[in-house]
Amino acid sequence: MSKLGNLGARLYRGEVGYDFVGKRKLWYGISILITITAIVGLAVRGLNMGIEFEGGAVFNTPKTSISASQAEEYAEEAAGHDAIVQELGTGGLRIQIAGVDTDKSDSIKTQLAEDLKVDPENIAAELVGPSWGDQIADKAWQGLGIFLVLVVIYLAIAFEWRMALAAFVALIHDITITVGIYALVGFEVTPGTVIGLLTILGYSLYDTVVVFDSLKEQTKDLTKQTRWTYSEVANRSINSTLVRSINTTVVALLPVAGLLFIGGGVLGAGMLNDISLSLFVGLAAGAYSSIFIATPLVADLKELEPQMKALKKRVLAKRASAAAKGESLEAPAAVESHDDEDPEDAAAAAAPAGVGPPRPQRSQPSSRNRGRGRPSGKRR
User: Where is the composition biased (Basic residues) (predicted)?
Assistant: First the structure.
């Protein structure tokens, strides 16, 4: 078994672990700082909305020897607006100019043909009205709102309202960071960006639901024992699913990183940036929020309940009493054992039901003790 596999098994059994929940104030502070930075970037720089949202003209030219940077200067001089130029695989150029109306597009096309030294008839012009972009934006907001409502309802039914609220906060956290990154780096927002943004919401929930499912299983009958608080069991749930979350996130990030850094950066396929950046940032933020935001927030909300407050007092009181006597509560409480009882079974019986990772049960032969106590060991 690999070292990572050994680590995952030890994390699952609770042999090792990191106190994620205990240091939740640190994670909250980091998230608040990142979120504020994203909001400030969004407020100061704003989003670089694509032509599909603002309206304008798109010109596709045939193969030309003019560079993209030079063509961008020509386009801005001809239109009087900012232009975005991308190189096409055919050797031609795709020139986007926002805020251009129908009357001016013909003159821009003629000027571009002269500057680029191509036939005007070979330049394909396409006009996009801003109303179409408004419809896309409205549909996107409607889809996002419906998605969030359905997610909250489902999680409230499948788990509980505190987990639904924590998952909702984590989703808003991920969306805010992703949108803020777009504002800071200045990448163009296109319909592909909207698709990527809606896609990451599912990935963000995936890791969160995995941890919540483990937490729900491990907190059954939690108040019937005095060894662990809710926060401690929540921390064990994070650790037991940590390697799985890391593996799934890395596997999902690798192809997206290829699109963003290789396709968009090295190969110059800029049209891949709009969707790949939203996926990359969203996947990373989703993995972070499920571990550092959602589950610690659930622990905070649960420990506001009177039952969990009373449990925490009992646990701390028992530990204080044990510490005063010089005892340790790290191992399971001792139970009465018999000569023919396996030590692992005794330890499993001592642990509270529903708390911690499940322990395998060992079956005993039904005839193991048959005839014990009789001299001959035979039935009479």
Answer: 369-380
